[in-house]
Write a structure and sequence with these properties.
It is a single chain. By secondary structure, the protein is of the alpha/beta class. Helices cover 59% and strands 11% of the residues. The chain has a 5-stranded parallel sheet with strand order 2-1-3-4-5, with helices on both faces. Helix 2 runs parallel beside helix 7 and helix 4 runs parallel beside helix 5. The longest helix has 50 residues. 40% of the residues are buried.
Length: 209
């Protein structure tokens, strides 16, 4: 009896794991048509920024912080093709700045202070918040607007308060789902789409190396 219960438990576990894959795939299929236009708009903003001598500042919390670093690594290093490095900075990695600003001003300002100091007109802020309500990311968006930067916002569900904060010149890539894990999975795909399409615009249609 004990062995049968273990087998049953394993089967249920495997089914649950498979369902995670199915749910993620279903969302990606559903999001493809909805997000292709804003992603293309994001590519245009990034290419305009880079070819104009600008840089990309990326920020987010938790998993989105990791995504910010991932994106900056793909830009500065490479995605799938050899090319000169592209200017990108993840605002999530300097612990001295993060702790100093957090201690002196509050955690809500850890990104906006960096945007104000490092951002220039023509730069892009890649702002990631699955809920669209992260206070420090919202503050970064406000700081970016003050510096005449374009914002590419990656959010989910309804877009939260960030939707209301964005300008017509900004780009909103909002994943149509309420679950954080699913939104983050699509955000990663969006970042890869951005990197791939930027390389396509800069290098032309070539085979991946």
């Amino acid at each position: 009896m004990r062995e049968m219960r273990v087998i049953s438990s394993v089967t249920m576990l495997e089914q649950r794991i498979q369902q995670q894959f199915f749910d993620s795939a279903d969302l990606k299929y559903a999001a493809a048509e909805v997000l292709s236009k804003p992603i293309a708009d994001g590519v245009s903003a990034l290419v305009g920024c880079i070819t104009g001598g600008g840089k990309v500042l990326a920020c987010g919390n938790g998993g989105s912080a990791a995504d910010a670093q991932h994106f900056a690594a793909e830009f500065v290093g490479r995605f799938e093709r050899e090319r000169p490095g592209l200017a990108a900075i993840a605002l999530t990695v300097d612990t001295s700045i993060l702790t100093a600003v957090g201690n002196d001003y509050g955690y809500d300002f850890v990104f906006s202070k960096q945007v104000a100091a490092l951002g220039s007109p023509g730069d892009v802020l890649l702002a990631m918040s699955t809920s669209g309500n992260s206070a420090n990311v919202l503050a970064a968006v406000e700081a970016a607007h003050a510096k005449d930067m374009t914002v590419i916002a990656l959010t989910g569900n309804t877009g939260g308060r960030m939707r209301e904060q964005l300008l017509e010149t900004d780009v909103h890539i909002c994943v149509p789902h309420e679950r954080t894990a699913r939104i983050q999975e699509v955000h990663l795909l969006v970042l890869h789409c951005l990197c791939d399409a930027v390389d396509l615009q800069l290098l032309g249609d070539q085979e991946n190396t």
